[in-house]
Amino acid sequence: MTDNKGVRRREFLKGIGVVGAVAPLAAGAAEQQPGAGHEPGQVHDHLTSAPVAGIEPPRFFTSIEAAVIVALVDTLIPKDDVGPGGIEVGVPTFIDREMAGAFGRGARMYMQGPFAAGTPQQGYQLPLTPAELYRVGIADLNAWIAKTHGGKTFDQLGTADRVAALKLVEEGKAEFAQVPPHTFFNMLLQTTMEGYFGDPLYGGNQNKAVWKMIGFPGAIGMFVEEIDHYRNKKYDVEPKSIQDLG
Amino acid sequence: MATRLKGVDIVIVGLGWNGGILAKELGETGLSIVALERGKPRDTNPDFMMPTIHDELRYARRHELMQNAARDTLTFRNNSNETALPMRQLGSFLPGEGVGGAGVHWNGQTWRWLPWDHEPLRRTLSRYGKSAIPPEMNLQDWGVTYDDLEPYYDKFEYLCGVSCKAGNLRGVKIDGGNVFEGPRQREFPNPPLIRSHAGELFDKATRRLGYHPFPGPAANASQSYINPDGVAFGQCHYCGYCDRFGCEANAKASAHFTVIPLAAAKKNVDIRADARVLRVNLDGARKRAQSVTYLDAAGREFEQPAELVILAAYALGNVHLMLLSGIGRPYDPATGEGVVGRNCAYQIGSGATVFFDENTYMNPYMGAGALQMVIDDFNGDNFDHGKEGFVGGGGISVSSTGGRPIEFRPVPIGTPPWGTEWKRAVKRHYNHTLAIGNQGSAMAYRQNYLDLDPTYRDPYGRPLLRMTFDYHPNEQKQANFIADICVKIGNEMGGERVDRRAAPTRYSIVPYQSTHNTGGAALGTDPKTSVVNRYLQSWDVPNVFVTGACVFPQNAGKNPTGPVGALAHWMADAIINQYLKSPGPLVQA
Q: What's the domain count of chain B?
């Protein structure tokens, strides 16, 4: 794939700062110019986006969005001396699959108008499904980062800048053009935790690494003897996932 | 155009615990019965099988067994100065959908409510006088006492195979059981579940403080069990996947494998899943129900005539159907007149989180839905309220329901919600922490009510139900008073750190709290303040009976399913022994 013309074009544009300098959706459009340079009779290669490290080929996110998701997950749950990072256990892939599925499409949400902001006690009121919220929120995030960090996207920031920026998003202080930043943050944090701690069946918590870190035995669920035998004692077993037991 | 079906004697709307009990009990009469359930047919095999049932994301987070908010939701506001907005996704409470209803995914906590809970008005007046009751509180007696219901509580406990220990056997108080409970005629059908370590710590600490701990009553069978109907229960596995899940062992009592198959086996009972009732059709004078209109899975409309209509949906669903159908007079908060939608209540939570050293292992994943140790010393009117300045109380407990880590990963207050420090705290505290919880009662108030929303509609064109609800100072005082006691217990347990969880200042529909919505169709003795009489029969339309927690005039500091199951049996008795012999009002208004 690396010898593909589309990739080389994207890398070239990135190299001269074009991709980072414009709004991400526009950058996405610039990446896909079917027929650019087309001459009659000439056969062109497919335009192919570069694979994004840290996520399996996305079902929902664009490559630009996927790079941001990977960076966001890495900021929320970094790899450190405590335990696995969000990327190595597949959280970005989990989020992508969720957004491509029924949850992302808001299949169990009441989505009829009229829409109004409401009070915090009334809960989520945007006219956006979770997948749409991610899409708009990432665009807002990247536009805000571009404005505050010299044309960069979130994934192009260093670790300290990512942490500082995400704190402002969490606190609602980031300047998002379309959606309240903390609403985007809540969806990001919720789905990141679901991927990190959930069953590996869904793409996150790979190798049950997170369950091993905290000592959760997973889907086993047969403790008639153990509840007494291991009273106030460490219960040290290899966790089992649904697939392990299936 | 609806297809008009052949008339039947009885139609039952909803097939959870209530509809299941009524279908089975009334099925004995030989009368023709149709039971309609909006959701899918379900059975233990294949729906709740291992290992796929042990999936926290699918069942606890994505609500596989619950009501789908895209089709069924309500609008909410804290007070009538606000504009109600739709609850766009489930949060605060999780009504069930499908055969078995919310009784499939409940925890199995099967209480007898305290004698006080059935007649709080009379007892409060007699002990404290009228000044103890805030002017805006609609404190009401049921018109049915604990003693009236005792045989029906018993029946439901034996149906469910409840595991516990009596604390009051025919008036004799027994240490180790709940000494505050009303007198019971016999012991529970099964011994208590095996205690968790958290439960042991709670037991010892509360005893040292002079309180009266006991195991919570659990419809999780502590041993294999055959109930009086001959239905077999397996022994609980302590799997930790109980609330929000179906039980693969048939150890957690549920209507789907007990009363419903018994009803379905009868030739005169016809169970129809995927049958969504849109309304009850009344005669012109609104004095008699003639039929119900429902949609099948393909969206075809049917009219099912019946001589008797029993509303057995979730509490909120029953009230919604009554308002849509014109059964009874809707409540008007401006004048205080009308009754349907009045007495809307909920519960209030508070408590303490107790963090222990790393050599104390809770193993939180070894649990059962109703595995808990409780004290009732501060519930109902079990303590002197004279100087406290509130009515009601709460059950204080340590529950060991499971340690599923998407939702259970306690960290001290002040821990950042992400990053390395957060991860360090999760890892440090996951297996070494317990929560002491207060399940606090909430009374009914003039300002809290249910009606129809003027703006938002469901996909069937019907106005959504609208909930106007907030906490009052009475409940906040109670929950903060009990939070202090929870902290005291936590310190006595020897926790390294105890975090107090205070009462919420406003009710929010966002975080999960409890599926214990009550009121809207209160039972009582006066048609001016109640929707149904003491037999749960509509005052206005006497061939409509209404079951479920919607009939509670106020909420208690205990889970509602025990009295719900008892009242369903009480009502079945009244229908069989009184109503069917002479159809008409069983109590004269």
A: 1
